[in-house]
Amino acid sequence: METMHEEHSKVFKALCDEKRLRILEMLRNGEKCACQLLENIDIGQSSLSYHMKILVESGIVESRKDGKWTHYKISKQGSKDAIELLRKLTIIDFNNENDNCCK
Amino acid sequence: METMHEEHSKVFKALCDEKRLRILEMLRNGEKCACQLLENIDIGQSSLSYHMKILVESGIVESRKDGKWTHYKISKQGSKDAIELLRKLTIIDFNNENDNCCK
DNA sequence: ATAACATATCAAAAATATTCGATATGGGGG
DNA sequence: CCCCCATATCGAATATTTTTGATATGTTAT
User: Fold this and answer.
1) Where are the alpha helices (DSSP H) in chain B?
2) Nearest to A69 among B12, B21, B102 (CB)
């Protein structure tokens, strides 16, 4: 029960940093290698690597190694899952709705 | 352009903390006042107040004052907007897709 | 094998977020 | 008016996240 929230928060942690949103924006027009991303964002190489790891571990981005390059793209399945998760977290459960509050 | 990502990250920042996910979970079965939330989560009163502020400012939760109590509930519109935002951030723009990457 | 390159990892520093206790604010009851 | 209760805000302490520079790993070209 505790780890569930931890697991869920991982997805949103990926999205709550401005740099990572900028990276996602770049990935929206197709797969990019790390070097290309690095050219278009104002952070160092190791920082980029750190952010890419978080994005990949969230499932929203997937990576592919090709020789010395690493290519990244948005994962359709991961995105779908994230949207579904957000929907589930915010849907109101009318069956369970109770009104035993202070008044 | 910079503030856009800042604005967007606010929504996901609200969702990236385990305590706030726990609060959201409680709100899924109906409106609750702060005192009820406080009873069911292991944080202090001032901490709860801090988290509620973040949730409300993200738009996902709305608050209503009633005498000395503050009631909170999930905002349908806010949730809808958050889902739509996530969809937009992760949708791949095929028109713009380009493949000018290192190889 | 050596050199140049792309990326990942590490540890320490810096920046941010969260918690806590104290105090402030505002409402309702006596 | 005075007191009690619910919640908000503040500043300091603590915890977590992000950045940075150095170094490691693995790849390609010579």
Assistant:
1) 2-15, 18-27, 34-39, 45-58, 76-90
2) B102
Name beta bridge partners: A32: A72
Residue A2's pLDDT band, with cuts at 50, 70 and 90, is low
Assess: ipTM above 0.90: yes
Q: The tokens 């109101």 sit on which residue?
A: A92
Q: For chain B, which residues score pLDDT lower than 50?
A: none
CA separation for the pair B11, B16 (Å, rounded): 9
Residue A7 near chain B (CB below 8 Å) = no
Asked if residues B17 and B23 have their Cβ atoms less than 8 Å apart, the reply is no
User: Nearest CB to A102: which of B69, B79, B91?
Assistant: B69
Distance (Å) from the C-alpha of residue A53 to the closest C-alpha of chain B? 17
Chain B interface includes A93 (CB < 8 A): yes
CATH number corresponding to B2-88: 1.10.10.10
Select the CATH number that applies to the domain covering A18-88 from these four: 3.40.440.10, 1.10.10.10, 3.90.180.10, 3.40.50.150.
1.10.10.10
Q: How far is B19 from chain A (nearest CA, A)?
A: 8
Read off the pTM: 0.93
Q: Domain ranges in chain B?
A: 2-88
Contact B72, B55 (CB under 8 A): yes
Q: Which nucleotide is nearest to B70 (CA to C1')?
A: D7
